[in-house]
Design a protein that fits this description.
alpha/beta; 2 domains; three-stranded antiparallel sheet; purine biosynthesis; transferase; seven-stranded mixed sheet; 6 helices; Formyl_transf_N_sf; Rossmann fold; globular; single chain; binds 5-O-phosphono-beta-D-ribofuranosylamine; Formyl_transf_N; GART
């Protein structure tokens, strides 16, 4: 499956896809990694793996619509069957999301529908929940509200700080995100009628 990955930062999730492709565990071909930030470390990871690493800075555009149009044009040059958001820290316009409907996924560091948006680990600790985690979901126009594909739970420890909690959540991200990508690549998971279907059954 041809895949394009969008990042803004470290790219540790991206690395799991690179490794999965290399080992043959993931039946994907990462066609390009695109970042809105030139200094994103994930670009280095891509280059090291021989994957085209592209930068499209939002600072070069007047508005979101213009940026998203240019981004879609860049992406579509690689003809991806799946577009993966992996720490891409920008909100995408409705038109962009509609263009990739059903082939656009994201990972969010909370047990959705809890803690949509930013600073999820801080907010989880403040709220006193005992279980936190991460979610992979299809992207729809409403932020962090798309149909879920897979989630992993992470118990909160009394001594947790946002940093220690984030670290343990990331271990789970690195497990469930490649899993979701594999299911998509194998055609086991899809989005239909606004829901996630797995092995022919609605989740
Ligand atoms: C992850 O925590 C992800 O949940 C969030 O951004 C972070 C990206 O980390 N959306 P990395 O760039 O994959 O290391």
């Amino acid at each position: 499956l041809p895949v394009v990955v969008l990042i803004s930062g470290s790219g540790s999730n991206l690395q799991t896809f690179i490794d999965g492709q290399a080992s043959g565990e993931l039946p994907i071909e990462i066609k390009a990694v695109i970042s809105n930030k030139a200094d994103a470390f994930g670009l280095e990871r891509a280059r090291k793996a021989g994957i085209p690493a592209r930068v499209l800075s939002h600072r070069d555009f007047e508005d979101r619509a213009g940026y998203d149009r240019a981004l879609a044009e860049l992406i579509d040059g690689y003809a991806p069957g799946l577009l993966v958001l992996a720490g891409f820290m920008r909100i995408l316009s409705d038109a962009f999301v509609a263009h990739y409907e059903g082939r656009l996924i994201n990972i969010h560091p909370s047990l959705l529908p809890d803690f949509r948006g930013l600073h999820t680990h801080e907010r989880a600790l403040e709220s006193g929940v005992q279980v936190h985690g991460c979610s992979v979901h299809f992207v729809i126009p409403e932020l962090d509200a798309g149909p879920l594909i897979v989630q992993a739970e992470v118990p909160v420890q009394p001594e947790d700080t946002p940093e220690t909690l984030a670290k343990r959540v990331q271990v789970q991200e690195h497990r469930i995100y490649p899993l979701a990508v594999r299911w998509l690549a194998e055609g086991r998971v899809c989005m239909r009628d606004g829901r996630t279907w797995m092995d022919g059954q609605p989740l």
